[in-house]
TrEMBL record:
The keyword Lipoprotein does not apply. The lineage of its organism: Eukaryota, Fungi, Dikarya, Ascomycota, Pezizomycotina. Residues 130-154 have a biased composition (Basic and acidic residues). Belongs to the CMC family. PROSITE patterns: CHCH. The keyword Chaperone applies. GO terms for cellular component: mitochondrial inner membrane. Its main location: mitochondrion. This is COX assembly mitochondrial protein.
Amino acid sequence: MDMAPPIIPDPQLSTTNRSKNNLSNPLPLSASQEAEVRKVYYARVRARCADEIKEFADCARGRTFSVAWTCRAQHRAMNSCMIQFATKAEEDAAREEWFAGILERRQKKEEELAAVEKRRVEVIEMTRKQEEKERIEMEKKLAAQSKEKQEKKSSGSWWR
């Protein structure tokens, strides 16, 4: 005998990692990559609320504990703005911006590595030249010393 389908649907396994839900970039991000995405996200929200943040900072400048009641209106305006723009959509936009910057960051890293390699080759070449110069100077010094010894041996003493 067949049973009726359950009224309550089976719970879907939810993931805490938001990148798994992102269809255009399904790869899960590492903790450091998530931190970079968060930095982009916070920067985007702060950019949208820059005026409110500046007003609160101007009010709070030079104050200590009196900020709580003196700058209450500016603080609430700043918090309201941050809450208004700190949305899942903004976080997704920040994630997309981060993914779009992957190629740029990779190219920048490759350029930095190339510059380091170029400098390393220059340092090696300068070191070789310096070592060659020191070797030649040492050979000249040894030749002069041996010549001096030969002159001492070949020359007669004035008292003999």
